[in-house]
Design a protein that fits this description.
Length: 255
C-alpha cells in the first residue's frame, strides 16, 4: 500500500474524517474518472477517483459507520475534558525528515518518472521562505511519481512542510460529512494539533480538491504560537487557501 494512503487511513482511524480509497489497478490508466466502492463495500456509494467525495455516515459500510461514530464520541469526550492535542509517536514517519536528508530537486533524488504537476508557489508566502528541499519519495527507476513533499523554513526558524498527492487517475479522497469542521476555500478540511512524548508539536491541515490531496504541516502549535503571534491558526488557513488558489506548475515536478 502507498505510504500516503496508509497515512490517510491511519488518520481515519483516529478522526474518521479523511481517508483514501484507491482505484483498481486497471483504472489508473483510464482517461475518464473511474469508480470504486468504499473499503468493505461491493457496491454504491461509489467513490469517484481523482476527486474529493463527501458521504454521510449512513452511506458508509457498517465497519466505517462504527468507526465514524466512535470518532464522534472521542471528539465529544476530548472537548468535554479539555484535551488540546492528539498524541502521536516520537518516530511517527509523518514528521519532516532531517534537513540533511532532503534533496534540492527531483533529478538528484532518484530515477522515478515524475508525473505530478505541483502547485506553483511563487504567488504564495512560501516563496519568501527559505527552501530546505524535497522529501525523498523512494521511487524506483521508472516508477511514476505522483507525490511531492517540500520543506521550508519560516523567517522565525519554524519548519513548514507542504505535501501534495496528485489524485488524477491515481486515487481519491473521502470525507465524512458529519465530521467536517473546517474548510480551505470551498473544500472540506481536517485541522489537528499533534504532540509527541518529547513535547514537540505539529499543526496539520489536510484537505483535497478535485485533483490534489494536500497536507500542510507547521512545527508549532498555531493556536498558541511560540513566537510571532501573527502565525496563528487563521494565518495557517490563509496560507492553505493561497496554496489551493495557486496554479499547477506547467512542467512535471516544477517547484
Amino acid at each position: 500500500m502507498d505510504p500516503r494512503t496508509f497515512r490517510l487511513l491511519r488518520q481515519a482511524s483516529s478522526a474518521a474524517a479523511l481517508l483514501a480509497a484507491l482505484p483498481a489497478a486497471a483504472a489508473t490508466a483510464a482517461s475518464a474518472p473511474a469508480r470504486t466502492p468504499l473499503p468493505g463495500a461491493s457496491g454504491p456509494p461509489w467513490v469517484e477517483t481523482g476527486k474529493i467525495n463527501v458521504f454521510g455516515i449512513d452511506q458508509l459500510p457498517p465497519a466505517m459507520q462504527q468507526e465514524a461514530h466512535r470518532a464522534m464520541h472521542r471528539a465529544a469526550a476530548r472537548d468535554r475534558s479539555g484535551l488540546e492535542f492528539d498524541e502521536v509517536d516520537e518516530d511517527d514517519w509523518q514528521w519532516p525528515d532531517p534537513v540533511a536528508t532532503l534533496s534540492p530537486d527531483f533529478a538528484s533524488m532518484n530515477q522515478g518518472r515524475v508525473l505530478i504537476h505541483p502547485r506553483d508557489l511563487r504567488g504564495t508566502e512560501l516563496a519568501s521562505y527559505r527552501f530546505l528541499g524535497l522529501r525523498d519519495n523512494t521511487a524506483r527507476p521508472g516508477e511514476p511519481v505522483l507525490t511531492i513533499g517540500r520543506d521550508f523554513e519560516r523567517p522565525d526558524g519554524i519548519v513548514i512542510e507542504l505535501g501534495e498527492n496528485q489524485l488524477d487517475g491515481h486515487g481519491a479522497a473521502v470525507m465524512v460529512r458529519e465530521l467536517i469542521r473546517d474548510w480551505v476555500g470551498p473544500w472540506p478540511a481536517v485541522f489537528s494539533v499533534e504532540r509527541a512524548p518529547s513535547g514537540r508539536v505539529r499543526s496539520v491541515i489536510d484537505w483535497a480538491d478535485n485533483g490534489t490531496d494536500f497536507t500542510l504541516m507547521v512545527l508549532d502549535d498555531v493556536r498558541h504560537p511560540r513566537g510571532d503571534a501573527r502565525y496563528d491558526k487563521a494565518w495557517m488557513f490563509r496560507l492553505a487557501r493561497s496554496i489551493e488558489d495557486a496554479p499547477r506548475a506547467r512542467e512535471p515536478g516544477g517547484v
